[in-house]
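Attaching the record inline, Q. Sequence:
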Amino acid sequence: MSEAERFGDEDTDAARYTVAVVRSDSGIQYISDLRGKRSCHGSVSSLSGWNIPLIVLRDAGLIYPEGCQFGRSLAAFFSGGSCVPGSRDSDINLPETLCSLCVGTNIGQTQKYIISLSTI
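Structure, as predicted:
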């Protein structure tokens, strides 16, 4: 599955593409097939790697954030674990499972070599 969506004004350079990448032999064909799988994101502060995937999942009716608890909804959806650099920041109250796949010694910091849902 390779899915890309364009967000923003097509007449300016402000548009962003967000992609979801999975192995061709995964059996995943729809965004709903990602439930229970693992995810990696660019950063908790990334428009294309964090905000847009949350909105896409919400608009598809796949997550139901109550009281703006998008992080909890995302953690429940990707129950196989996630890597969301910056999610362990003490100023942000996000579930620890959003950093369960993060590697390195500065777990709360954006890590190098992260395969992500990000901007193309």
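Residues 1-5, 107-120 have pLDDT under 50 and may be disordered. The longest strand covers residues 2-7.

More tomorrow.
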